[in-house]
């Protein structure tokens, strides 16, 4: 193959000293898949000759081992070859009974292996797990954890709804894992964060420390490391959105003190919140649905929050048990 | 090479292609043993791979993100994804290309996220390790890296030091102020200014990209 591209030229390119014409040559050369392989091979050689950072591969590898311990690879179930060697007969009977028991046990394991802690609408509860981790459950939320922490020393919990976690670091660096909606996993060593797993959506906000998020996408499991102030939202189908907020950390956990902070929050989101936390079904008219709310409200129950909204906007309320209809009194009013 | 590539085909089939490429370049196949290890014991293969490339991958990533912590996270994430998805079973070209490509993509993505505060995460093509990249994309990253380097290199001496102490070493503003015997405010303004020129650079980068799409 005739080409002017060689290692020397690419090294010049990596140094940032190629001319525009040379870059064009590289572009053409890169059209060939084999050349892309070569490109990365030379990139590595160049990096090797010009290292930018002193790293400790041993320590990093130890950390990596800890992480892969926390994330088992998806298990491929293979047919067990041993069965072939067994003679048919009584063994079969015994085996099927055992299998049946195991299957029933396996299918119902959520029931007998797991303890469930749930909060009612409007109820906020703080619990301390056996390992010392403090969990504050928001209203209408459910946390499942192992009944026998001594049998399986894993620190795995399953969350529906919203909760704040203050995870205790153990001396053996056991990872703590929160399983939320859409198969999202939050893996932590010791830190503070909020998980909201409602409406087919998981939102994680990190206040302190570092967590790793794992979520399934189309054909693989994606991994993401979060730093303080970051939030990540994973919706169904593995669509993730990441952001960083400079707001005070108390905003994400305001609900612990019955405080609700909105920042240009659309009214439909507040309607969802009333539904999630207090079980109210809220209907908005089209004018209200376009409104956005900013401010911090103190409310112990749905009525207080509704009252605050009524004072903010000119709203008419029609209430029938758990169903609430909100109408703006003056639909032409612009704010 | 003929004989060894023949035996290779029987034991670790997918490698015939990468092998021939490397033969073209008159290079011994450096990944041969790693592939062998993956075929027998993935744990061992991963360890070899980690030790062979970890440092160079970090070096590549840090040219983009300029932070030790973030770099280590990114390289760690790439290896973890590689492991949990058993990507090593799917790669028929080279692990090296896959790893470097993923690290560069993630570093770029991190910068975009960090400097624009909130954006959807793009799905990496990590799940499809053998796909061929757009040459434009590779060159775009080269150019971005060159410009980042240029921006930081041309900062005034003190600003450069402050920026690197804060970002690279992750030290607090107070610590830096004390060590360099300068005002806390000065530290802050150095960092803000450096970050904002990076932000401007990335914004131009996006515009270029957008422009490219529009004219195509």
Please name the defining characteristics of this protein.
heterodimer; A: 335 residues; alpha+beta; Jelly Rolls; Phage tail protein beta-alpha-beta fold; 13-stranded mixed sheet; three-stranded mixed sheet; 18 strands; 30% helix; extended; B: 216 residues; mainly alpha; Arc Repressor Mutant, subunit A; disordered N terminus; disordered C terminus
Approximate helicity band of chain A: 25-40%
**Main pleated sheet of chain B:** none
Q: State the low-pLDDT regions of chain A, or none.
A: 76-85
Helix content of chain B: over 70%
CATH class of the largest domain in chain A: Mainly Beta
* Sheet with the most strands, sense and barrel status of chain A: 13 strands, mixed
The total of helices of chain A stands at: 9
The whole-angstrom Rg of chain B is 21 Å
- Percent of residues in beta strands of chain B: under 5%
Order of helices and strands of chain A: HHHHHHEEEEEEEEEEEEEEHEHEHEE
Q: The CATH topology of the largest domain in chain A is what?
A: Jelly Rolls
Radius of gyration of chain A: 28 Å
Average pLDDT for all residues of chain A: 80
What would your notes on this structure say?
The complex is a heterodimer of chains A (335) and B (216). In chain A, strand 4 and strand 5 (155-166) form a beta hairpin. Mean pLDDT of chain A is 80; it is low at 76-85. In chain A, helix 1 (7-14) packs across helix 3. Helices cover 30% and strands 32% of the residues of chain A. Chain A folds into three domains: 7-49, no CATH class; 116-245, Jelly Rolls; 258-328, Phage tail protein beta-alpha-beta fold (3-Layer(bab) Sandwich). In chain A, the strands form three sheets. In chain A, strands 1, 2, 3, 4, 5, 6, 7, 8, 9, 10, 11, 12 and 13 form a 13-stranded mixed sheet that branches. A three-stranded mixed sheet of chain A has the order 15-18-17. Chain A is α+β, with helices and mostly antiparallel strands and 335 residues long. Chain A has helices at 7-14, 20-29, 33-49, 57-70, 90-107, 109-113, 267-278, 286-289, 302-312; strands at 114-118, 125-128, 134-137, 142-146, 155-166, 176-179, 185-188, 192-198, 201-208, 211-216, 221-226, 230-235, 239-244, 259-266, 281-284, 292-298, 315-320, 323-328. Chain B is mostly helical and 216 residues long. Chain B has two domains: 1-133, no CATH class; 134-216, Arc Repressor Mutant, subunit A (Orthogonal Bundle). The termini of chain B are far apart. Classes of the chains: A alpha+beta (335), B mainly alpha (216). At the A-B interface, helix 2, helix 3, helix 4, strand 11 and strand 13 of A face helix 2, helix 4, helix 5, helix 6 and strand 1 of B. Strand 13 (239-244) of chain A pairs antiparallel with strand 1 (118-120) of chain B.
């Amino acid at each position: 193959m005739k080409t002017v591209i060689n290692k020397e030229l690419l090294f010049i390119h990596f140094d940032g000293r190629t001319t525009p014409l040379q870059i064009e040559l590289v572009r053409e050369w890169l059209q060939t898949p084999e050349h892309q392989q070569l490109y990365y091979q030379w990139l590595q050689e160049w990096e090797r000759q010009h290292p930018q950072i002193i790293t400790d591969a041993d320590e990093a590898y130890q950390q990596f081992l800890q992480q892969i311990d926390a994330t088992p690879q998806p298990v491929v179930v293979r047919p067990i070859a041993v069965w072939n060697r067994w003679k048919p007969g009584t063994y079969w009977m015994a085996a099927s009974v055992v299998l049946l028991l195991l299957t029933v046990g396996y299918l119902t394991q959520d029931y007998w292996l797991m303890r469930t802690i749930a909060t009612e609408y409007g109820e906020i509860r703080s619990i301390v797990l056996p390992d010392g981790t403090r969990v504050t459950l928001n209203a209408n939320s459910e946390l499942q954890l192992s009944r026998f922490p001594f049998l399986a020393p894993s620190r795995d919990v399953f969350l529906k709804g919203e909760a704040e976690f203050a995870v205790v670091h153990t001396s053996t660096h056991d990872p703590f894992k929160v399983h939320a909606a859409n198969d999202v996993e939050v893996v932590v060593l010791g830190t503070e964060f909020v998980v909201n797993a409602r409406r087919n959506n998981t939102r994680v906000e990190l206040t302190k420390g570092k967590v790793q998020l794992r979520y399934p996408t189309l054909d693989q499991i994606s991994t993401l490391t979060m730093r303080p102030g970051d939030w990540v939202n994973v919706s169904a189908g593995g669509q993730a959105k990441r952001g960083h907020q400079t707001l005070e950390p108390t905003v994400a956990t305001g609900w612990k003190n019955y405080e609700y902070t909105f920042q240009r929050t659309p009214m439909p989101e507040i309607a969802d919140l009333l539904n999630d936390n207090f079980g109210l079904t809220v209907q908005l008219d089209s004018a209200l649905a376009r409104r956005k709310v900013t401010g911090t409200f103190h409310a112990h129950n749905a009525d207080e929050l509704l009252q605050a909204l009524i004072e903010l906007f000119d709203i008419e309320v029609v209430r029938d048990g758990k169903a609430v209809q909100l109408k703006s009194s003056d639909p032409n009013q612009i704010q | 090479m003929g004989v060894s590539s023949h035996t290779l085909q029987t034991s670790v089939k997918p490698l015939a292609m990468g092998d021939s490429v490397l033969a073209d370049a008159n290079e011994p196949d450096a990944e041969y043993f790693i592939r062998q290890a993956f075929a027998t014991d993935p744990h061992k293969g991963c360890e070899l791979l980690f030790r062979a490339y970890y440092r160079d991958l970090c070096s590549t990533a840090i040219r983009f993100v300029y932070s030790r912590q973030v770099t280590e996270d990114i390289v760690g994430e790439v290896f973890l994804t590689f492991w949990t998805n058993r990507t090593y079973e799917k790669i028929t070209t080279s692990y090296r290309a896959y790893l470097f490509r993923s690290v560069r993509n993630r570093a770029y993505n991190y910068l975009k996220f960090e400097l624009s505060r909130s954006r959807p995460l793009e799905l990496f093509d990590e799940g499809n390790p053998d796909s061929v990249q757009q040459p434009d994309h590779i060159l775009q990253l080269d150019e971005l890296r060159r410009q980042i380097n240029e921006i930081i290199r041309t900062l005034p001496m003190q600003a450069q030091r402050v920026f690197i102490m804060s970002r690279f070493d992750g030290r607090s503003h107070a610590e830096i102020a004390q060590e360099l015997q300068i005002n806390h405010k000065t530290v802050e303004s150095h960092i803000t200014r450096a970050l904002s020129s990076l932000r401007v650079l990335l914004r131009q980068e996006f515009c270029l990209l957008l422009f490219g799409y529009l004219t195509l």
